Amino acid sequence: MSTQPTTPIYSPGLETVIAGETAISSIEDGLRYRGYPVGELVEKCTFEEVAYLLLYGELPTKQQLADMRQRMAEALRLPDALKALLKSLPASTPGMDVARTSISVLAHFDPDIDDNSRAANQRKAERMLTQIPVAITEFYRVSKGQQPVAARSNLSHAANFLYMLRGSEPAPAEAKALDMSLILYAEHEFNASTFTCRVITSTESDLHSAIVGGIGALKGRLHGGANEMALDILQAAGKPEQAEAWIIAALARKEKIMGFGHRVYKSGDVRAKIIKPTTRALAIAAGFDEWEKSADIIEDVMAREKNLFPNVDWPVARLYHALGIDRNLYTPIFVMSRIAGWTAHVIEQAENNRLIRPRGRYIGPGKRSA
Predict the structure, then answer these.
(1) % pLDDT > 70, the chain
(2) Is the pLDDT confidence value at 1 over 70?
(3) Which of 2-6, 173-177, 302-306 has the lowest average pLDDT?
(4) How far apart are CA 219 and CA 229, in angstroms?
(5) How far is it, in rounded angstroms, from Cα 334 to Cα 253?
(6) Which domains does the chain have, with CATH numbers?
(7) Which residues are identified as catalytic?
(8) Of 81, 175, 196, 305, whose CA is between 20 and 30 Å from 6?
(9) How far apart are CA 198 and CA 343, in angstroms?
(10) What number is the average pLDDT over the span 28-35?
């Protein structure tokens, strides 16, 4: 039976287009990682356990988790060439550029660089997860004229980051709050940066190249950079008694309010709802209770006037501020987390590969003669 050719469907931004199949995460009925609701993972698991779930398909046993932590502990030191490069970069270098460059340099020293098998990619992913926080904190401290702080293998992933950043061990509540944000940022289906990773992988390129591409996509303010811009909104809005007037005036000027709205979540981002109580508690403890009041007012106005609700970047920006983290590090922290999801997608794409090559809709002049 013959079939008629179908007319290609044009969807700006590929909105609502199904571009592939994945067993890694779903967002149709609340965010789930390999079937587990993300809220349960935040409550019951650590980021290391969630990273294992994303990379290997199942939550780890105690022994599997211990083995992974041992492998990651062995990878905590950066190659001397990267350490030297980080010291030579201009102090003004954006944190995202540092992360992107570090991935490229690490590729040259990875013992599995020429092996794109599943097992090798899982090993590379674990090392990348381990080394990028070291690179981020080492450059940050050097750029501030401080000595780098050596990583400690007896701390959790989140606690170790704060320790390397500050030079002192964080309080358990601080480490738990950062750990929660890492879990929530770890994976989110076919977003712009993940799709970039899959496109690169589909050409049969390597894992490090795919992650460099993902970082480039995440750097944009409409994707990962939104958490930094969300902080600007709160700073501009000022005290609670000024916040409503400020946000109404900003909307009248048709300014884009970062931290609100989402391409997929139209009635609110489940991740924002999960972490908001932790953000509030941490912010109040750090003396930023007025910011929380202003944030509530802005949320109310955005819901009333624009029917827009917070995405995860809105509370996470305040959480990082309460932790005393420089805003230049907000999106690099996103990278630290999302490497788990990106690498899982690279592995999945490589194992069931088809070159991703969409068509373009031509709107230029008709046929012409020179």
Answers:
(1) 97
(2) no
(3) 2-6
(4) 12
(5) 30
(6) 37-219+342-351 (1.10.580.10), 226-322 (1.10.230.10)
(7) 262, 313
(8) 196
(9) 9
(10) 91
